[in-house]
Amino acid sequence: MAPAHTGIVSHSVSRLKQPALFGFLLAALITLPLAESVFQVPIQVSDSLEAIGIAAKYSSASQLLSDSLRFSTTTLRPMRYLQARWLLDAARRTNVTYNAVFRAAHVALLGLLVALFLLAVPVKNWTDLAAFSVALLVLLGIHTFVAMLQEAFPVNHYAEVGVCALAVFVIARQPPRWFFPILVCLLLACALSVIESGAMVWIVAVCCAAAGMRGMTRSSVMAATLVLGAYLLARYALEISSPGIGGHGSGFGATFYSPEDLKQRFAAHPLPFYAYNIGGALLSILFSEPRNGVYSLAIARDAGVAHPVVIINVLSSAMITAVIVWYAATRIGRSRAAWSDSERAFLVSCMVIIANAALNAAYMKDEIISVGGLFYAVAAFIAVRALLDTTPRRTPTGGALIAVLLATSAGLWAFRAAGMHYVLRYDAFKTRNDWVEVLRPDRREDWPRDERELAITRTIRDEVIARRVASPSFMPRWADRYWVE
Amino acid sequence: MSLDSGLGIRDSKVRLAGAAVMLPCVVLAAMSTWWFVAGLAGQGLWPPDDVTLAEAVATRNNAEALRLIALGSDPNSPSRVRDGLLTNGYDVLVTPVEAAVGAARADSLRMLLAVGARIDERERLVLRCYERTRHDSSVREILDAGASGEPDCAHVRLPVDRKD
Predict the structure, then answer these.
(1) Which domain holds residue B2?
(2) Cβ contact (<8 Å) for A442 and B7?
(3) Dihedral of the CA atoms B45, B50, B55, B60 (nearest 10)?
(4) Domains held by chain B: number
(5) DSSP letters for A232-264
(6) Quick count: other Cβ atoms within 10 Å of Cβ A200?
(7) CA angle at residue A179 from A173 to A185, to 5 degrees?
(8) Each residue's pLDDT tens digit, A230-264
(9) In degrees to the nearest 10, what's the CA dihedral of A131, A132, A133, A134?
(10) What is the DSSP letter of A447?
(11) Which residues of chain B lie closer than 8 angstroms to A403, CB-CB?
(12) CB-CB: which of B29, B70, B111 is closest to A26?
């Protein structure tokens, strides 16, 4: 017979694990249909088809890798083409459709993001669980999250960077291990090889070290800095420059400008535009406004009417940002040695949000601030948890007000998170119809010349046309005004 | 000093606040479960609707129109378009090209013509008159190609006119 104290211990352990289990269950239940919505979006024509065509044309992966280093004068993204090739090979080997394989990759990225978030904000008791239930909605409902699942190039690189950045953060929360520097370097190298925003992984590592998180040792940061240095050297050797103003369209005030217009308006004196973009990116993470540089509130002011989606987004974000600001304000002035793990994690989140905003200097895009969006959710968890912790010390009215504020905010965020299904279905409809314009019988002169590229284009097109998706015409009419900005 | 009870909830105030805060997430999780389970049976959140070829065109769903044609739908046969898409208050029976004109979709019209839809002179007059009620310059450009002057629509019955 087991001793009595063993029973008490195992009972206590199981009780401790209960909130974590509920947290996992909530995340899994909400993510499952979301994964289905992500899976329904077909392979895109814009940004994806070109990369897939290039990947299909090459007879060897090594030749593709070597040539991809010279594909662009402003980007170095060798893994973009290589992973497209791997996924094409996987589809052929498994006899699964190309669409299924490419979309499964995105479903996997969604699963990884949610799983890493669960690890990043450990749920140990019921108060944690309450805070987690808000933070999870913030994670999924923020506009920068759906941006990681909508676009594909043909795999969304921002989602890959998000996974790597969160993984580094999770590593930093653990006790140090000998292999952490290697892991951090691998994650950074992966992120940098798909897109320039991969530098965010290095920023997360540096922020974790600066905040004194125990898993991020000096050797990890030094090794990661060496990897970043090697990457920058490679860019220099390959004469790859960074895109400046005019490399991409972006908004200013109430208007979205084309690259040419931006160049004409701001190239001569770029500093105010840079400041506008950095400030705007920060506001976008904290208040869901502006979007891609455009202030919907400014449009609403001119038009005299604001769409409900703008009000819901701004209000929900403002409430959570207020809690985050309250948390920061109550911790100012405390010595570094006295910081708790949560306070260090909170500081990292704030630093990452600010650094991510700075990456938007040349142009603003929801995807670029997606890592900032992930860490906004982490900061929300820590701040909401701390606010809930204060309720026993408050008057009944104060406690009730906090509960109402957080529940209202959570309700709005839940509504935003539910809207992802609508946005993704809308995208699936639009993307599927984009394929009608590919290989048009009356435009044979536009068809690919290469036989392999033509064959793969035809197969993917046939697959997409055969995949039935929901039409917005048969979805609720009100949804556009409440979920699409 | 921790005031935690065994469950980590410090007192009823925290418990109440925590429950209120968790409610939206729990509701979304319950709804998500329903969407997922129903989705496995093909009845989840906003499943694809069964549409006729004309309805696919009327709802700007060219890809679905192509799929239906590939499955054997005739691009020249009229089919039902439900109330609210081209008309208000009643269903209509129209051909896919008529639906394209009604939806003011030049791209749909062009696609239908490329995959075998035919327009004879009588139908062209009807379509041109129908377009005059919709006003789409790109559709007009396609329908007016080769025609001279304005069509005489005085005695033309439009495809969406209600049958008495």
Answers:
(1) 1-47
(2) no
(3) 40
(4) 2
(5) HHHHHHTTPPPP-TTSS-EEETTEEE-HHHHHH
(6) 31
(7) 85
(8) 999 999 999 998 878 888 899 999 999 999 999 99
(9) 60
(10) S
(11) 16-17, 20-21
(12) B29
Do B30 and B63 fall within a single domain? no
3-state SS string over A102-137?
HHHHHHHHHHHHHHHHHHHCCCCCHHHHHHHHHHHH
- To which H or E segment does residue B93 belong? strand B92-94
Instruction: Quote the CA–CA distance of B103 and B82 in Å, as a whole number.
Output: 13
Distance of residue B82 Cα from the nearest chain A Cα, in angstroms:
11
Q: Kindly list the distances between the CA atom of residue A172 and the CA atoms of A13, A186, A217, A220, A466, in Å, as whole numbers in the listed order.
A: 25, 15, 8, 10, 46
Query: Do A335 and A125 meet the contact criterion of CB atoms below 8 Å apart?
Result: no
What are A229's two structure tokens? 């240095």
Q: Which helix (H) or strand (E) holds B80?
A: strand B79-81
Q: Which of B5, B7, B32 to mutate to test the interface with A (most CBs of A within 10 A)?
A: B32
CB distance B14–A414 less than 8 Å? no
Contact B23, B31 (CB under 8 A): no
Asked whether residue B64 is assigned to any structural domain, the reply reads: yes
Which residue of chain B is at minimal alpha-carbon distance from A430? B61
Same-domain pairing of B82 and B133: yes
Q: Is the ipTM of this complex over 0.95?
A: no
Contacting residues of A for B68, CB less than 8 Å apart: none
- Test mutation, B5, B9, B25, B59, chain A, max A CBs within 10 A: B25
Same domain, B32 and B78: no
Nearest alpha-carbon partner for A345 in A95, A169, A104, A165: A169
- Minimum mean pLDDT among A14-23, A449-458, B112-121: which range? A14-23
> Which residues, in sequence order, are CB contacts of A153 under 8 Å at separation 6+?
A47, A48, A51, A80
B37 near A CB under 8 A: no
Total residues found in chain B within this entry: 164
Whether residues B123 and B84 fall in one domain: yes
CATH code at B76?
1.25.40
**Cross-chain CB nearest to A133 (options B22, B30, B85):** B22
Residue B45: the pLDDT is: 92
Measure A481 CA to nearest chain B CA, in Å. Answer: 17
Q: pTM for the complete prediction?
A: 0.92
Q: What is the SS3 assignment for B104?
A: coil
Q: Contact at 8 Å (CB) between B104 and B141?
A: no
**Is B164 contained in some domain?**
no
SS3 category, B115? coil
**What's phi and psi for A201, nearest 5 deg?**
-65, -40
Q: Do B16 and A36 touch (CB under 8 A)?
A: no
ω into residue A154 within 30 of 0, thus cis? yes
With respect to residue B133, please indicate whether it lies within any of the assigned structural domains: yes
Supply B54's token pair.
Answer: 């004309």
Residue A475 distance to chain B (closest CA, Å)? 6
Q: Are residues B133 and B80 in the same domain?
A: yes
Does the distance separating the beta carbons of A36 and B36 come in below 8 Å?
Answer: yes
Choose, out of A13, A22, A30, the residue to mutate when testing the contact with B (most B CBs < 10 Å): A30
Tell me, yes or no, whether B34 and B67 share the same domain.
Answer: no
State the pLDDT at residue A1: 42
Is there a domain that residue B163 lies in? no
Is residue A12 predicted with pLDDT exceeding 60? no
